[in-house]
Amino acid sequence: MNTLSWFVGLRYVRARSHKFFVSFITWVSLLCVCLGVTALIVILSVMNGLEGDLRDRLLTLSAHARVFAPPDARSLPDWSALATRVRAVPNVVGVSPYIELEALAVRKPEMLPVQLRGIDPGHEGEVARVAKSLIEGRLSDLEPGSDRVIVGRTLAQMLGIGLGDPVMVLVPVTNSDGAPEPRLREYHVAGVFESDQPEYDGALLLAHLADVRALMPNPEARMSLHVNYTDAIGAPGYSATLARTLPSGLEVRDWTQDHASYFRAIRLEKTMIAIILMLIVAVAAFYLVAMLSMVVTDKRTDIAILRTLGTSPLRVMSVFLIQGSVIAWLGVGLGVLFGCLIGYYAGDVAAFLERVFRFEIFDSSVYIVTRLPSELQAGQVLWISAVAMAITLLSTIYPAYRASRVPPADALRYE
After folding, report:
1. How far apart are CA 376 and CA 343, in angstroms?
2. 318 within a domain of the structure (yes/no)
3. Cβ-contact 252, 11 below 8 angstroms
4. Quick one: 219 and 72 in the same domain?
5. Is it the case that residue 91 has pLDDT exceeding 70?
C-alpha cells in the first residue's frame, strides 16, 4: 500500500457524498462492532468478578491444597516432619495439620450429619481462615481438652444452640478388629461462624485437633495437611511441584480439583457467551460487506479513472481495504474503550442504575452476592480486540477484490 491508496481510502471515509442508505449502513456496521465488543468485554468482566467472588467464598474455610494419605496407604508419615518439609517448598506460605471426620450432631429432637474438623488454632493459616468468618465467640477458646466447638450459623439455627450451649457429637469409628465402635462426646459451643457457603455454614464443626484425635483409635490414619500458596490461582502448578517432593504413597489435591464442577460450569458459560456475543461482530461484518459493495458500485467511475491513470488492481484493492478497515477498527477501538470503562466500573454503574430505576439486580433476600462484581483482565481484552479486528478485516476483502476487478472501459462507457 502506498501514499495514493491511503489518501484515496481515507478520503472515501471522510466523504459526505455517499447516498443516504450507504451512510446509514456505514454507521450501523460501526455501531454493531462497537456494541459487540463492548458487550463482550463487560459481560466477561462481570463473569470474572463472579468467578473470583465464588473462589474467595470457597476458600474461606478451606486451604489452597491438602496433602493426605489414601485409605490404602501401606505406611503413614511423620506428619510434623512432613509439615516442616512441605513448608520449605517454593511458593508455600502456610502448612497446618487437621483431621476431618463424618459425624452426627445431636440436639433433641434434631440429629444432623456434619463434618467434624480438628484444627490447630496455633497455626496462622487456620487463624486467618476462621477469624474472618467468626461472628460470635473467640477462636482462642479452642484449647486442648476443652471440648469446645465453633459451629456454622445455619447449623446453630437448625439445632437451636448458641454460645455456651452443649451439643452431642456421635462419631462412627471402628476398632482394631474392624467392628463398629461409635464415640459419643459432648461439646460446648465456643463460637459461631458465617462463611456464606451452605456446605460450611450448615454442616461444619470446628474443634481443637487434640480433642478430635482423642476420638480416634488410630488418628494418624486420618491426618492431613492444609497447604496455602502465595497465589490461589497458581495452585495447580504449585501442587504439581509439591507432589514431586512428597514421599511415595501421599497425594496432594488442590482447590480447583475439589471444586472442579463449579469452575467447569463457569468456563462453559463464559465460552458460550463469548461465542454468542461475537455473533454481533459477525453481523456487523456482513453490514460492512454490504456497505463496501455499495461504495464500490457507487465509485465505479473513480475506479476506472484510477485504472486508466496506471493504478494497479492491487492498489485499487488496497483503497477499499483501507476504507473498510478504518471504519471497522474505529468501531473496535470505541468498543474496547467503552467496554473497559464500563467493565472496570461495573459495580458503580449497576449501583447507579439501581438508585435511578429503583430495582435490585441481586435481591439481598435471595442472593448471597448483593453487589455486581467485576474483574477486567487485559488478556481477555486483547483477544477480543484481535478476534473482532480479524473478523472485520476479513469482511473487507471480498468488496475490495470486486473493486480491483472492475473493467475501466465498461465503467466509463456507461457514464
Report:
1. 6
2. yes
3. no
4. yes
5. yes
